Amino acid sequence: MKYGIEWTPGIVVLGLVLILLLVTPFALIALVVVALAAAAALVALAGAILAAPYLLVHSLRRHLAERHESTGASAPMALTPFAGPTTARSSQ
């Protein structure tokens, strides 16, 4: 048997130990980065859930205000037929 072949298992074991020693800190760093990304995603999701009703009401109020300004009337459309001059004359 050759002398180099006898040392091969020891070199392989030493290489695996060194690789595991070097990879472990990088794996921990990657784990922390993934955990922070997941936490940021959860915070963003919670913010979106809390902001959705506010944004919906804000948009609806803005739309109704624009609609009200475009008609130029101070009363809703359903009440305008009853506010005419003919109603006032017939009640006298």
Detailed description of the structure:
The protein is mainly α and 92 residues long. It is built from two helices and no strands. The chain has helices at 3-71, 85-91. The longest helix is centred in the middle third of the chain and has 69 residues, at 3-71. The protein is rod-shaped. The relative contact order is 0.04. The model has no long low-confidence stretch (mean pLDDT 81).
Q: How would a textbook summarize the main sheet?
A: none
Percent helix:
over 70%
How many whole angstroms does the radius of gyration measure? Answer: 38 Å
* Structure summary, number of beta strands: 0
> Looking at the structure, what is the overall shape?
rod-shaped
DSSP helix count? 2
Q: Given the helix and strand composition, which structural class is it?
A: mainly alpha
Distance between the termini: 127 Å
What value does the average pLDDT take?
81
Strand content: under 5%
Quick take:
The chain is an all-alpha fold and about 90 residues long. It has two helices and no strands.
Secondary-structure map:
Elements: H1 3-71, H2 85-91
Index terms:
92 residues, 2 helices
